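Here is one chain, start to finish.
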Amino acid sequence: MKHWLFFGIMYLALPFPAAAQEEARFNRQAAWKNMCHDPHIRSIQLFKGGNEQSLPTLVWNAGEQLTLWFDDLSENRSSLRYTIVHCTADWEEDNLFVTDYLEGFAENRLNDFKHSHLTRVNYTHYELHIPNNDVQLKVSGNYLLKVYETDANAPVFVRGFSVVELKTAATLRMRGPAVTGESCLQQLELAVNHSSLEVRNAFRELKVRVEQNGYRLPLTPHPEPTFTDIGRTDYSLADRLWYPGGNEFRFFDTRNLEFSGRGVVQMRTDSDGFVYALLQPDAPRNRQYSYEREMNGRFYIDAYRTADRLLEADYVTTIFTLNVPEPFDGEVYVFGALTGFALHPAFRMEYNASLHAYELNTLVKQGLYNYRYVLLDKQGRIDWTAIEGCYAETENSYHIYVYFRSVRDRYDRLAGFFSTGIN
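Its structure:
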């Protein structure tokens, strides 16, 4: 018995209205930053050091390392390789030569891998650390890590990471609701101190990117400065830097194959030994705030009674159900770190008219998971609130990236990285 999951990247058709075109552009950037083309590649995690919940952002020249984990469920894979590409602030490949941003070899093999054991679904677990003896990073900014078999232009998957210089400071805090009468919006107050940089024109040379829980929300372009002074630029204004709070992520626990964990109704093993996890049927939460102690969309691989969770955790056919009386006018997706924080075709749900519910069956490695539901309408716009609702009291983490590019620079330097949140 084989389990096949077909991963891919969703390309949105054009033309769209102006707002939809802007959203489609952000969707393509998010997909490019986190895309996966191979149905056998699963459980991709890229993080700093040994903290699996951390963002893949390194401090330049501080001796820090990124860790990449992923599993390959294929049976006859040829050797895998990787390369690293420097990007602009908007995750487009820039025009730097490889020797401008890398020291060492441009292409390298992934040699650190082990085979799973005591699992019903067999897989090969890979691990990589960056920088390493083969390649070091020479400049700050955004990078794409491409993993491929024979052609770097046809990667198996891509993950983005960043390297930051500590050249700026920030006054940053959250408040909400942002606008009177709006119970949904959260607002940032942000001022950047850049006295260590030779900023002549903050409107042209500085660029700020805001991410919520590690991903960039569509229709949130780079904030424009409210005003600028010598060594300081302020981005705070009543109608700027506001973001939909959304709702807390949902949760399930498949660490124990013999008992139903939180969010799981039933664990079942078929005659071939494959395990199925029926999750608690969900319903829209668009009329009430639902507090959950969660991981802001992330996941943690784990399995009970294992000596090595990364090699002994099994893959479980996980069954998602969303009860709604009528189908939405669009497509429903499961969303979170398990989907690469993107609308992934492998996580698109199908509506079952006889059950009045959306359904999805997909392989997921044992562990603790966050997820939520999002709606993609027929114009290609993502509706974050139709299913989950939107509330200012939702706990969210916000991450601010400050880029600097003077007239003398050939690339976007990442000059600052800051975080805050509502807890």
